[in-house]
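# nightly structure sweep
# worker-07 picked up a monomer target from the shared queue
# config: single-sequence mode, recycle default, output format = structure tokens
# input follows
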Amino acid sequence: MLSVSRRDFLKASCVTALPTLPALAHAQERSFKPQPGQWRTFEFTTRAEVAAGKGATRVWLPIPSINTDYQQSLENTWKSNAAKAELTSDGQQGAKMLMAVFNGTEGTPYVELTSRIRTQSRSTDWSRAVDAREDPQVLKSWTRATELMPTDGIVRKTALEITQGAATDLDKTRKIYDWIVTNTHREPKVRGCGVGDIAAMLETGNLGGKCGDINALFVGLCRSAGVPARDVYGIRLVPSAFGYKELSGNPANLARAQHCRAEVFLAKYGWVAMDPADVGKVMRLETPEWLKTTEHPVVAPVNRALFGGWEGNWLAFNTAHDVVLPGSKGPKLGFFMYPNAENAEGRFDSLEPDQFKYTITAREIQA
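# output follows
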């Protein structure tokens, strides 16, 4: 177990070992376009163990908390020798979790959570406007600032510069998406999924990061421009059907497969899927060379597809920021998409599953 700083603790994990996938040339031949309408059912299992004899320990495991047109969170079952194990939430933003409390006398303390979900891909038909409706107070809440995502100062200034001349919310979103893809970059050296301190990114001019940074910057700029937006925190479950190894999960080992996506609310389309961070990931990692253009045949399809869509090989946990873990004595989390634990010595390092002793696996099942 490691005690970590608040900055390190806010980070999540995004790297996973991958099974063999179609060759790059095969990926180049494909048109990357997620196709809604085909639901897939998965069982997702997280098992955490803690060292015996270390005193009282709490473990929090995220569970899928999203029920919408792209995901159905069905059921959760668990087994544990904890003194207490119960479903709970952060109490503010609907981030659900299983909390297990160990008293330190268990022989081999463990908790294992299995969640069943259904997912499908998303793709927006831009030729068909709809009468999109949402509670005004809900939309207002998705333009708010968070601790790591301010909507004033340099964030507001940058958003206004990017969206200058944009007439509609769709125009603003398009300009911000293109700016993110052009100006940010995937930085493999960043630990986990990054932190998401977007003001620091803009102030320093260091726009390299991972999904927790890049999609947070996209969301913060949208909010600052008046477009309701939110991060959606989750994990990749299985390989991508479109031949992109970097957009895949290995179901046998998902402990480092966490990934956050984004959504915006557009007046004529409702909540729309976005993922500029994955465009940057493909540009940087999908080929041996760093592809610094969206016109490359590997990048162009995913750049088009992820403006308004995403693939259903991923589950969503929640959309929560500034998460307070119930019963915790430590600081709140910037986001919650990976196991957490703490005892009297401090918080465990969630980015070190081998030291924390947790595993995450998934399997697709026939509904």
